[in-house]
UniProtKB/TrEMBL annotation:
This is Sigma-54-dependent Fis family transcriptional regulator. Pfam families: AAA_lid_14 (PF25601), Sigma54_activat (PF00158). Coiled coil: none annotated. Residues 210-441 form the Sigma-54 factor interaction domain. CDD domains: AAA (cd00009). Keywords: ATP-binding, DNA-binding, Nucleotide-binding, Transcription, Transcription regulation.
Length: 573
């Protein structure tokens, strides 16, 4: 065993990316599993099939890598064989904090912890559907071992090993006997698998459904391509306006259901008492105002995909109805007397909330949570996809111009793009689209039929951003982030270091503005420095802070700070 561990450590030290570390780890784990089979009573009657590394920090998938026995290189877990990830497996390792064995045929989960009970499938949402079971069996996997991928930060994912052994159905397989070694391999590999970068991906092709793909999204797309080809539920989390509905449509168009209906239900727009009706439809007379039969969104998306956004807004009553639909694939329209309709629908769920926290608070059903949290991905906010901002802005400008004036072209000036990149985007793509639309209108007003290209200048974007300010100003965290973003943007624009110590001038800006508004002594009190006034030390403190402001403005090429008069007054004091 010592040689095996030494070989793994050497291979991991030589790994330069997640994929090579995953391949090195899985090769040795699969070899250990094969050795355990060879020395067991199942020798000659069982075969180890494959291993998969599932990296999913914070509940959302980030990377996948699969290795079949005998292969040298990993795949993205979706090439050549139908990849499947089980919500049951993930829930089991999270709940038991240890490795588990799954007997697929009889649907039991056996934790490797001492004296842990065997758990039947009814208590573990996600695997007890026959659909999930058949997907495992379709891969010839009858026995699965799932090992937690742990770091000091917590549970970062899992490694699953699959084997085929009909002779072991309902009996103990080799996983527990080999479990200590397999978990040791997993623990040794965990720091490398979670820290190493992903192998650079080829520049993805853009299309009408996802016309802009930056670095962050490019890393996510390989996983989404795998998920898109399955019928299991995808859970897309992310901030409002980040593009979840666009991503859902992209997945639909790359699924086996492309060409079939794609429907969206945004629960923010549906009152609670109408949610069941919107989902399942109704018969004439089912409630006041139901003057005719009407199909619900489930019926309208039959054969295709249904994207339900803001799932956390679903009432507890409607949650029970959705849970029944997901479990039985059947539903009953409101007012329908007897019988249920079958639902041939693939579900994609969107949320900007922490659903696990909603479960703990009693606002979201735990069983439904595990039903929708099968293939979870997280959509990064636009602020974390900074390289996409100018690309999205160009796309939005060109699209709007084609709608308004098919002839000619429109573009953003470099300074205008720079201003967009250095701004804060709490509203994500939705907010960016509003700003671009507003700036485009301002530019059109000035253009007034003049010839040549339409150019959105920095002043147009600046005015559009000014209109965005809500009464009372933006929230302080957002404003601080915008200030920090502007500082970093200035350093990048000039191509030379901008000393971080100059950021200390912000304190002086705050103090100077407070003095302008409420007077010097009251400003010190307002900002928690009343003791300096009492001790008569506030003159030195004010001068020191205003000198930092002056230094910041000079470094930025400005003639003087907005508080030069205050500084001169303190120097004269």
């Amino acid at each position: 065993m010592r040689d095996e561990l030494a070989q793994l450590m050497a291979a991991l030290r030589d790994s330069r990316d997640f994929e090579s570390a995953a391949a090195a780890t899985l090769r040795r784990m699969l070899a250990a599993a094969e050795a355990a089979v060879a020395s067991s009573r199942y020798a000659g009657r069982a075969r180890v099939l494959r291993g998969i590394v599932h990296l999913r920090p914070g509940e959302a998938y980030r990377r996948l890598a699969a290795l079949d026995v005998g292969a040298r290189e990993t795949t993205d877990a979706g090439v050549g064989t139908p990849f499947f990830t089980s919500a049951t497996a993930w829930r089991a390792v999270v709940e038991h904090r240890c490795a588990v064995s799954i007997d697929v045929n009889i649907g039991t989960v056996q934790p490797h912890a001492p004296d842990a009970p065997v758990t039947g499938d009814p208590g573990l949402a996600g695997f007890h559907s026959n659909e999930s079971k058949q997907r495992f069996l379709g891969r010839h996997a009858t026995h699965v071992c799932v090992l937690p991928l742990r770091t000091p930060a917590g549970m970062e994912g899992m490694i699953s090993l699959e084997a085929e052994c009909l002779a072991a159905m309902g009996q103990e397989f080799v996983w527990r006997d080999a479990g200590d070694l397999l978990q040791l391999f997993t623990d040794i590999a965990a720091p490398y698998l979670t820290a190493l970068p992903q192998r650079p991906v080829a520049t993805p092709e853009v299309d009408e459904f996802l016309p802009v793909v930056g670095r962050s999204m490019a890393e996510l797309l390989p996983i989404l391509r795998v998920f898109a080809l399955q019928d299991e539920t995808i859970l897309v989390s992310g901030a409002t306006g980040a593009g979840k509905s666009r991503l859902a449509r992209w997945c639909h168009e790359r699924s086996n259901r492309r060409g079939k209906p794609f429907e969206t239900l945004d629960l923010v727009t549906v009152p609670e008492d109408l949610q069941m009706a919107e989902l399942f439809g109704w018969k004439k007379g089912a409630f006041t105002g139901a003057t005719r039969d009407a199909p619900g969104v489930v019926a309208r998306s039959d054969g295709g995909t249904l994207f339900i956004d803001e799932i956390d807004k679903l009432s507890l009553k409607a949650q029970a109805g959705l849970l029944h639909l997901l479990e039985s694939r059947s539903y009953r329209p409101l007012g329908e007397g007897t019988g249920e309709k079958l639902a041939d629908v693939r579900f994609i769920i969107g949320t900007n909330a922490d659903l696990h926290a909603q479960v703990r608070a009693g606002r979201f059903r735990e069983d439904l949570y595990y039903r929708v949290n099968v293939l979870p991905v997280r959509m990064p906010p636009l602020q974390d996809r900074n390289d996409e901002i100018p690309l999205w802005a160009r796309y939005m400008v060109n699209r709007r111009h084609r709608e308004r004036q098919p002839e000619g072209s429109a573009r953003l000036a470099p300074e205008a793009e720079h201003l967009l990149v250095t701004s804060s985007w709490p509203g994500n793509l939705r907010q960016l689209d509003n700003i671009v639309r507003r700036a485009y209108t301002l530019a059109m007003v000035e253009h007034a039929g003049a010839g040549g290209d339409l150019v959105l200048l920095e002043k147009h974007v600046a005015r559009a951003l000014d209109y965005e300010q809500a009464p009372g100003g933006r929230p302080l965290p957002e404003a601080l982030r915008a200030a920090a973003q502007a500082f970093v943007g200035e350093a990048r624009r000039r191509g030379a270091p901008l000393d971080l110590d100059l950021a200390d001038g912000f304190r002086g800006l705050v103090l100077g503005l407070a003095i302008r508004q409420v007077g010097r002594d009251e400003a010190f009190r307002l900002l928690g420095r009343e003791s300096l006034v009492k001790n008569r030390n506030h003159h030195k403190a004010l001068k020191r802070e205003l000198e930092k402001v002056d230094g910041l403005y000079k470094a930025l090429g400005e003639d003087g700070s907005p508080f030069s008069d205050l500084l001169e007054g303190e120097e004269a004091t």
